[in-house]
Amino acid sequence: MTTRTPDAEPLLTPAEVATMFRVDPKTVTRWAKAGKLTSIRTLGGHRRYREAEVRALLKGVPSIGGDM
């Protein structure tokens, strides 16, 4: 179990992001490798994505990484 502070930003798994964009989770991983989406690595080496950034991309807000 992880301990989170109240101000910790929610993180999403590749599967959760993929569901939001209606793509395969491997596509989300490719986006992260290409720099189009920022990923955070867990201690186990798994990728997690900031919910705020993902929601901004869904709304069409341009990111530093450019267009998808």
TrEMBL record:
GO terms for molecular function: DNA binding. It holds the Pfam family HTH_17. Residues 11-58 form the HTH merR-type domain. PROSITE patterns: HTH_MERR_2. It comes from the Bacteria. GO terms for biological process: regulation of DNA-templated transcription. NCBIfam families: excise (TIGR01764), HTH_BldC (NF033787). This is Developmental transcriptional regulator BldC. It comes from Candidatus Frankia alpina.
